[in-house]
Specification:
- The protein has about 160 residues and is α/β, with parallel strands linked by helices.
- It has one domain: Rossmann fold (3-Layer(aba) Sandwich).
- The protein is about 35% helix and about 25% strand.
- A 7-stranded mixed beta sheet has the order 2-3-1-4-5-6-7.
- Strand 2 and strand 3 form a beta hairpin.
- The protein is globular, with a radius of gyration of 16 Å.
Length: about 160
Amino acid sequence: MVPSKITILSDTREKYPLLFPVHIRISGSTGAVKVVRVEVEQSVMPIGDYAIKGKEHLCTVERKGSARELAGNFLSMDRRRALNAFKRLKAHCEHPFVLLDISASDIMEDVSGFCGEGVVASVLLLELRQLGIPFFGFGPCKGNGIRRHLGAFVAHLLVEYSYE
């Protein structure tokens, strides 16, 4: 059962953290709509970037904000560390998600200057498929209004996967 108030943990290392609404409206299996108050707590999260406090083991969202970040994660000496972080996310969370806050054109670009168009997307999709981590993309979400809508979507996702 979903409580009347949730606290969303937001990793302090996020450069452009999502903006969350003060409340969200959720629909239960009976069709009744419930208003849930949303509070946000900044925290150094050991895995992921967003989760409901006390429910991190059920659903956590890892946000990736640029194709350059992904290229650095998967096409550099940082690859082992990045893959280990994704493996920890999968191992410690029942429903992990990766949020691509990137445009489709950006993720297809050759941001590294040497790997070729589409390679970053290909490597990302391969690694996430092998790890069994689903992803969703909305991006880029730079303005406050769109970041608030994306925050509301993530709040709904976290609630749906954290409560029965």
